[in-house]
Every structure is written in C-alpha cells, then in structure tokens.
Amino acid sequence: MTNVKNTSSEINEIILVPEDTRELVKSLLSKVDNFSLKYNKYILTDKEGKINKKSAMSSSFAFPAKLLNNKISELEQAAKSLFGTNKVIFTKSVVDKLIVGLGTESVLETSITLHHIYGFPYIPGQSIKGAVRNYVIKFYFDSDEEKALTQSKTFCLLFGCNKETESKKKSALNEDYEGSVVFFDAFPTFLDNQVISIDIMNPHYGEYYQDLEPPADYLQPTPINFLVVTNTDFKFILGTYKNIEVEWNDNKLSLLELARQFTEETLTKYGIGAKTSVGYGYFK
Amino acid sequence: MYSQKAILLIRNITPMHVGSGNELGIVDLPIQREGHTDFPKIEASSLKGSLREAFENKLGEDNLDIHLVFGYDEDADANQKIKTILNNTEYAGAVSFSDARILLFPVKTPKGVFAWITCPYALKRFDEDLKIAGLKKLNLPKELNNIQNNPETCIVASNNLLINHKMILEEYSFTASVDTNFAQNLYNYLKIDDLNNKLVIVSDEIFTSFVKLSTEIITRTKINNSTGTVKEGALFNEEYLPAESVLYLLVFTAPIFNTVKSNFTDDLSVMKFIKDNLPAYIQIGGNATLGKGIVKANFMEV
Fold first, then answer.
1. Which residues in chain A come in under a pLDDT of 50?
2. Which of A37, A130, A237 shows the shortest C-beta gap to B110?
3. pLDDT for the residue numbered A108
C-alpha cells in the first residue's frame, strides 16, 4: 500500500488508503471536517513518496460549530441530570499552547489526543484526574503517594484508594473505595483553523541522549514537528453524586468544592499534558 | 408473569467500558460481545445493576419501592429498615431486562464528522424486538438483500453524506443509494437528532468489521510521583464502545412478588414506576469517576 505513484500535479499523494477512496478524498482534502481522519488516515506524501509531515499536519479543518455546541450542552445536561446541584462547570483558556497525547503511537512519530468519533482535540477525564491527583500529592504530601493514601481520608474520598497501599500499609479509609468525584472529558469551546497549530522541537544532541556520542557541536540538530492546541477555551465539568463534607487544612467544605479548587490550581499552576516544564499546558 | 413490555433506548454520550475480564491480546480489558455475531452488547446483569444504582441515586437506597421492584438488596439496607417492613426478603424482582443490543454504531467520515452505520441483521432483529414489545413494526427498505449480496454498496439517508455519489467511512468507500424515507421512519422510533443526515446501512459483513475494529482503545498509564514521568510496567489498554453508539434493550415488568405491595397494584404500575423515575442520563460500566459510560436513556414511544 505504500507504493506511491508519481504525480505531476501540485497535490501530494495520499497513502495508506485504498485507491478509490484516495481519489475522492483528494478532491475534498481542504474540507475534511473530521480532523482525526485527516491526521491519522489521509496521510500525505511528497513527490518522492516520503511522508510529508508538515502537510500531513496542516491544520485547516472546519468543525461544524453547531455540532460542537450540541455536544458540550449534552455533557452539561448529563452532569445536571446525574449530579443535580453537586456539579461545577467552568471554562479556562489555554495560556499559550497545550499538548495532550504527544507520545501516543502515530505514523508521524509525534501524536495528539483526538476524540475517537468527533476527531477534535480534547482533554480526556483520565488526564485531568491524573494531573490533579499528582498535583495534590506533590504540593500537599511532599510527592509521597503513600503518605497521601495512608494519612488523608479526604484524599482517598476524592481520588479513591485500595484497602492497602502497594507496600501493604492500610489506607486512611481502610477499604477499597472508588473516588467520589467524577472528572468529565474537557471539550474545546470553539474550533477554527487557528486552534491546531504546528510546533517544533529541535534536539541538538540526539545521539548524546541515546548514549552514542559525547555532546558536542558537530552533532546535527533534528527538527521534529508536533501539533499543539492553542487559542481556545476548554469546558471542565466535575460532579459528585452526594454532597460530602470534608475537612481540609482545618476548614470544613464540600468535597466537590475542594476538587474544584485543586483542579483550578492544577490548571493554572501545575499544567496539564506534555512539556509543562517548558511552559506548555497552562490555563488561565 | 412478565407481561408488560417496553423498549429502552440507550445512546452513549461518553465512551463506555462494560468489561468481560482480562484477555491476553493487545487489548488487556475488552468489552462484552455477543458470542454468535461479535457485536458489542451489554449483559442484562450489568445493566440491571447500573439501572438500580440510577434509581437509588434519585430516590435513595432505602426506598421500599426500589427493593420491591428490583429485588431485596441487603447492602442497600444498612439499618435493616426495609427488612422489618418486608415479611420475607426471598422474592424475585418485578422487572426484567434483556441484554442491550447494538443498533447504530458511529464511524468517522470526512463529510459530516461521523455517520451512524447499521446492517440488515441488526435492523431485522430490532424489527422483531419491536414486535415482541408490541410496537408497530418498521418498514424495512426492500434493498436490504441487495446490500447483503453486494458489500461494496450501502444505503444512505441523505445526499449530504456523499462525495461523487460515494460514501466514505474511515478510509473505505462504498457505492451509495439514497433512501430518505427509511431514515425518517427510523427517526420516528429513535428520535435521535440528525439521524436523517447520518444514517448508513451497510452489509452485515462490513458492519461486523467496523464494530470489531473501530472501537475506541484507550491506553492508560500511571505517572511516577517522584520523577513525573510514566511509570514502567503500569501501562494497560482498555476497549470502549465509542460515544454516539446506540443500543436498546427490552424491559419487562410483572406484579410485585412480595406480600407487601407498597402502592403497586399490578404489572402496569411497576412499568409506570420505572418509566416515571428513570433518570434521563445514566452511568453504565467502568471508570465512572473519569466520566465514562454516561448514556442518555429513554423509553421508545411510537
């Protein structure tokens, strides 16, 4: 299937799809509204038949605004129906750029998390819950997961715990417990051509990192393109089935309110996704 | 016995993982599937638990009616309040569920973001189940056999889906014929917005391939707290039935099987209780705290 015809036309060749589909997609390429299909399936090559990463990543895609709004309001309605008043919904904007799922397998080396059906970039619930949990462990429990699990009932109620920790110590709740706070997937609130853009990393000492060579100026830099999300807001939704009162730092408050505080702190101070240490993944 | 019948329609708002245990393939945690067709399904037992929980979240665990309709549950009766009201806790529930069967499966398309595919087998089965539930049967399109014999063809609901008279699903293209009437007909049962813009009927063979190969696989990792990087050996793959999948199940009710009846007079009043109290959104399956398995549920009224 990677056998590519040489065409004299301006359009690059699409590989990895059957020939009849190839011709159809070519006529439509700038209008494909499912970005995931465009990015993961309709891969473009240059005239020599090599995958053209840059044009494969070209970000022009138009997602129907009406569909996006419908899906967001569906999530909000679901939260309302499931949790009643025990829900919080808030919107945060990406400060600079966001990368989720950079390391996922892809023919283009680098990747991005795209919704399985709608094909737009989003932040899965597990990424949010994982980041918030790590943030809390890092800043409130000195990066010691076991300390959090064994000493804090509130931590266990929020994120869940097993009866025993990995080193067989009793958790603060002393039972297997599924966390009480539900972290929904966060969808972007608007999508246009500007939202997905191409970024670059340029490791200068690749061979040094692979333990092949000493780090020296004769090594060649290797530019690697990847996709980032920028210029949009995300809608975050949290909920609990029951109102649970907890204590935190000598204050009494609802578990949901605490989860909201932690999530906002994580988004604004700790970042989410890849490369947070160099400024990606922060929200305001 | 279980003489009142209805059809409950379920549409995934978020991906759903109703698991069947561990497996040694690429996917560590696959979803439940039917043995004879390989179509995704939800076991009645998994469903009953989820539905009971939804009722409990709404009415409270210690609601007598829930114990009468779904059967007595010791764990949901911590103070033994229900036990003292009931003379006998050994009785069957008054509601019965079938497995949930797949009717529409979402597939990405370059035009219109996604389409809902179904197939002759799924449609005929749905038609039979409509009959069992005492609902009016569908008017199935005559061309169904044609598609079955020519898997490279399909029937679509609208011209809007087509590119040069062809329908593209993921990377595959199909020769399409348009049938707006059937989509409208099916809409009258399902009341799913946009169905008349997104319905595609493909052959059983093609449908089976998509429901087997196009489910969502989510790779989960754990982050090491001291290094902030992915923890080794903590990687696993979970399979999900994607958002926008549409399933349905048959619901049957019987009169209460206990001498205590609460306000229930007959099987009809049990069905009314279920219909009146069923929340619009329910959570089914694993990873509830990650917002997975949220479905929109409603009884089919034709």
1. 1-10
2. A37
3. 63
Q: What angle do CA A169, A170, A176 make, to 5 degrees?
A: 125
Compute the count of residue pairs across chains A and B with CB atoms less than 8 Å apart. 133
Are the C-beta atoms of residues A108 and A131 closer than 8 Å to each other?
no
Residue A153, phi then psi, degrees to nearest 5: -60, -40
Q: Taking CB atoms and an 8 Å limit, are B108 and A25 in contact across chains?
A: no
Cα gap A166→A175, rounded to integer Å: 14
Chain A nearest-CA distance from B258, in A, is: 30
List, in sequence order, every beta strand (DSSP E) within chain A: 13-15, 43-45, 87-93, 160-161, 177-178, 181-183, 187-188, 196-201, 224-229, 233-240, 245-248, 251-254
Looking at chain B from residue 89 to 108, which residues have their Cβ under 8 Å from any Cβ of chain A?
106, 108
CA–CA dist B16, B240 (Å, integer) = 5
Portion of chain B with pLDDT greater than 90, in percent: 64
B97 or A57: which leads in pLDDT: B97
Closest residue to A129, CB basis, from B171, B240, B290: B290
The amino acid present at B32, given as its one-letter code, is Q
Q: Would the CB atoms of A183 and B291 count as touching at under 8 Å?
A: yes
Q: What is the pTM of this model?
A: 0.91
Kindly determine whether residue A38 and residue B110, on different chains, have CB atoms separated by under 8 Å.
yes
**Nearest chain B CA: its distance from A42 CA (Å):** 8
pLDDT-based confidence at B109, cuts 50/70/90? very high
Integer Cα distance of B194 and B200 in angstroms: 12
Question: ipTM beyond 0.85?
Answer: yes
Measure the N-to-C terminal CA separation of chain B; round to a whole number of Å.
24
| pLDDT surpassing 70 at residue B6 | yes
Secondary structure tally for chain A: helices H, strands E: 9, 12
Determine, for residues A116 and B216 on separate chains, whether the beta-carbon distance falls below 8 Å.
yes
B85's enclosing H/E stretch is helix B81-85
CA gap B223, A143 in Å, rounded: 12
> Using CB atoms, which residue from B113, B226, B244 is nearest to A119?
B113
Residue A180's identity, in one-letter code, is: S
